[in-house]
Amino acid sequence: xxxxxxxxxxxxxxCDERLQKVFNEVIKYFDCTIxxxxxxxxxxxxxFAAGKSQLKWPxxxxxxxxxxxxxxxxxxxxxxxxxxxxxxxxxVIGIAQGMNIDIRWGGDWNENMKVKDNKFDDLVHxxxx
Length: 129
Hints:
CATH topology: Muramoyl-pentapeptide Carboxypeptidase, domain 2
């Protein structure tokens, strides 16, 4: 059975309790790692500058404490494997729905999200609505 590393547990612990519940259930069936939970100002500014976030500090859901967002990847990590990231997303969304927790996946951004050019997809990002 898959299990989170201590680093993943520590990152997940910075997140909203609902995200913790979802991902603690997901890990029982799908091997994944938590890339990031709460993001401080330095980390958020760096993510924005690198084009990995569309929001400046303190406007992102990662910037709240507890974090209303989490970044998670299938394990082992392969940043080019969009198929596995999408598979994980379907699993996460299904688990969340079964728990009556309303989440949004970064691969589903649309024109209502005010994303410049509507082409920003964040396949590792999940947030509570």
